[in-house]
């Protein structure tokens, strides 16, 4: 960077170029935020939510997605029947037993009641 451009940048000179650069940066930032918001909308379509629930915040969406992914991972890894395993984990969490999976202490437990388990061929979670 030559000294004149350094001075003009940090000392207020060259102001005619700043608004265009700032506008370009603002457009990029709006596009970035739009793509992030679209990704959150799509993620919310894959996690269990209450039918009456307002849109989840981004942090709530992420926390619920993490818990849900962990639950699905546990279900896939267990040699037990899926329905029985979930029932056992829910019971462990509700009775405060040591060793309940991390996902079973989350907001996910309340949402498990809204899943149509019969359509999945699994007894409803009690």
TrEMBL record:
<dbReference type="InterPro" id="IPR011598">
    <property type="entry name" value="bHLH_dom"/>
</dbReference>
<dbReference type="GO" id="GO:0046983">
    <property type="term" value="F:protein dimerization activity"/>
</dbReference>
<dbReference type="GO" id="GO:0006979">
    <property type="term" value="P:response to oxidative stress"/>
</dbReference>
<dbReference type="InterPro" id="IPR036638">
    <property type="entry name" value="HLH_DNA-bd_sf"/>
</dbReference>
<dbReference type="GO" id="GO:0043054">
    <property type="term" value="P:dauer exit"/>
</dbReference>
<dbReference type="GO" id="GO:0140297">
    <property type="term" value="F:DNA-binding transcription factor binding"/>
</dbReference>
<feature type="domain" description="BHLH">
    <location>
        <begin position="20"/>
        <end position="72"/>
    </location>
</feature>
<dbReference type="Pfam" id="PF00010">
    <property type="entry name" value="HLH"/>
</dbReference>
<dbReference type="InterPro" id="IPR050283">
    <property type="entry name" value="E-box_TF_Regulators"/>
</dbReference>
<protein>
    <recommendedName>
        <fullName>BHLH domain-containing protein</fullName>
    </recommendedName>
</protein>
